[in-house]
Amino acid sequence: MTVISKALTLLDQFSETQPEIGLSEFCRLSGHDKATTYRYLTSLESVGFVEKNPTSKAYRMGPIVLRLAQVREQTVPRKNTVIEPLDQLAEKIGETAHATVLSGDRLITLANRDTRRYSTRVVVDISDFPLNATASGIVCIAFGPETLMPSALETMRRFTSTTPTTAKALHQAVDFAKAKGVAIADQTYEEGVRSIAAPLFDQSGHVAGAVAIAGLVGRMTPDRDPEAARAVTMASLQISESWGGKVPDALQDLWKRNWGNPSSSHI
Amino acid sequence: MTVISKALTLLDQFSETQPEIGLSEFCRLSGHDKATTYRYLTSLESVGFVEKNPTSKAYRMGPIVLRLAQVREQTVPRKNTVIEPLDQLAEKIGETAHATVLSGDRLITLANRDTRRYSTRVVVDISDFPLNATASGIVCIAFGPETLMPSALETMRRFTSTTPTTAKALHQAVDFAKAKGVAIADQTYEEGVRSIAAPLFDQSGHVAGAVAIAGLVGRMTPDRDPEAARAVTMASLQISESWGGKVPDALQDLWKRNWGNPSSSHI
DNA sequence: TCCCTTTGGTTCATTATTCAAACCGATGTT
DNA sequence: AACATCGGTTTGAATAATGAACCAAAGGGA
Fold first, then answer.
1. Which of A90, A200, B105, B188 is the most buried (most CB within 10 A)?
2. Which nucleotides of chain C have an atom under 7 angstroms from any protein CB?
């Protein structure tokens, strides 16, 4: 822990529910003493990371972060940040991995990557993912905005004999995802393809999309589910972080309980 | 200059044109020695302010700034940040001040504030500012996106006898603004009202709106223009900063040359 | 009114970090 | 083979951060 990291973790105290924080409260929240906290805050203020409410003398998030976020968004677009985690995921499981982004009530492909491990592999060539028929769709309904379920119920299409096309079947699939933390779709979009998906979170703290692995039923068998789920949740952690988001603790706990530690090897 | 401010100014080196910077280059850019720069960067990395490209080992803006910007945007909305500078502006000149935001090719009122100095004062009650007939509109055409001029030429309406309604007249007004750094509208929207406007810049570095002062012709006489221009440009500096933006150096120079120092008293 | 608490802000001897220059090993270039 | 440059590490003298104690001011009760 250097001075820099200590000072910057002060900024984590700000949130939508706690926009202004006074000196004394900062001391309590951060655990540092008053003099140190004061010096940190005035330093942060001098570079625009916090600003002081002149009347209440409380501190709030400064304007410079807007500029920095703009640079981040411009120089490290979301699409680029998913490539590496997707490659790792595809490589680990030996199947095709893809990431999608939620745009309103639609789920759009962001990127997909496969491995060369098998000569036959799944090609994911969907631009607009049906919410009811894909693991990515189900997991977004389960953990995303409330509006998704009614929207999905309205536009349900049948793709295979096992596509959930009734409200009951859809609720069942969503409830499974809510219980397990990931969605599993067994040939609901295409015969012979089984896939597992986990939700992605962005800087707003909400679901921003999904990451999934899709493979042939012969290889993506249920006994490999734990391994695949761990890999998919690992990818979700990585991608969500690079989007400035964080997988909610409750969901991380759910994953751990159901699938064990997501291969806690490296970052 | 504390450690914190020194470390954080490292982040200013990143830009849209320079998204990744290596250690040696950072030393050159920041002027610090290698060991210090390295420690600063690893500290910044540990809290997510920068991240390292694993192959090139160069540093780039980290994802945490996305979250911080979200908090800033949520807790300190733009509308709130203009109130205080507007009040100061209105108080200093004794007329009505207002701020507008550019949304596509339209200029929308964000807030307006007046003083009690005079019993008669201008009430600005426009929701959609005509680009050709207001000082705010002219200054946005002059310093904002290229698309504004054609859009303005298309929708030119006449409000008073002096409203610029020909391409020639509009270009003349815009050229004046480009030369002076502010736009002056003498009864072009409403008889008896004269106003001066300066552009506002946001985190993207582009014009995001305008701030203006509007008063009765009898009081807002040309001999008070320098005073009013200084006050308006001062307000622009404050508001732009609070939006994570920065008034371009070229424009600041222009202001200084034409109107002198914008009352360089306090921040 | 007085007393007590809490607020933001400051001081100074002690302690930890920073600095600059030299050094490593790896990766090109000439 | 010689050279330059890269990211990263080490060194002890120089410099900065630290935190308990301290201020002044602003409430809040009684």
1. A200
2. 6-12, 17-22
